[in-house]
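Structure (tokenized):
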């Protein structure tokens, strides 16, 4: 019986393949920019060939994940203001299986409780215009956003004089919520907590 790869092994395989594509070791040579041979001869297609080669490989890995029911979940730990949380997250290169969606949905409450505890007294901003702008919001706004979402994620940026804690509230499939690819069936909102007088940078 052949070996079935683990979640961690698939992440490593994808990371290595991505690097190979970025360095030009893998190209999808038949990719053309416009399909018009007269125009295509004047346009450098190497970047598109690298991108397409990686996307094709990633699709094959996602099919392998589905076939062998290999979870896309990795466990993260975050420490803020002396508080710790270990929580599940679907790796950005993998897809969420049905069981994975149940796991991240079940973790949403503990993520929200942790975020609420460590952001007391901070200012809140909603990321708008695809993360180019931030709109200040309050706790009532956050509760309204929370009601229409299914799962959550966390990040933090911290320096000696700066702290930003980002709460991701999402719905649908995480891999389709990324970059609004699956909108409106899948999507997410990002809420940034910063100390009073500071602005989000993440």
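Design, position by position:
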């Amino acid at each position: 019986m052949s070996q079935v790869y683990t979640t961690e092994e698939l992440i490593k395989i994808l990371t290595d393949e991505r690097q190979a594509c970025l360095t030009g070791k893998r190209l999808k040579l038949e990719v053309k920019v416009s399909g018009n041979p007269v125009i295509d001869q004047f346009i450098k297609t190497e970047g598109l060939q690298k991108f397409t080669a990686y996307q094709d490989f990633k699709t094959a890995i996602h099919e392998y994940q589905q076939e062998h029911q290999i979870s896309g979940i990795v466990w993260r730990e975050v420490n803020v203001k002396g508080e710790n949380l270990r929580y599940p997250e679907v790796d950005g290169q993998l897809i969420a299986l049905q069981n994975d969606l149940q796991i991240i949905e079940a973790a949403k409450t503990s993520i929200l409780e942790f975020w609420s505890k460590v952001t007391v007294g901070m200012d809140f901003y909603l990321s708008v215009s695809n993360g180019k702008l931030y709109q200040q919001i309050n706790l009532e706004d956050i509760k309204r956003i929370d009601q229409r979402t299914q799962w959550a994620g966390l990040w933090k940026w911290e320096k000696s004089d700066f702290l930003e804690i980002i709460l991701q509230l999402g719905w649908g499939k995480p891999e389709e919520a990324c970059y609004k690819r699956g909108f409106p069936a899948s999507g997410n909102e990002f809420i940034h907590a910063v100390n009073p007088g500071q602005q989000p940078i993440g």
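Reviewer-requested clarification: The two ends are 46 Å apart (CA to CA). Residues 28-34 have pLDDT under 50 and may be disordered.
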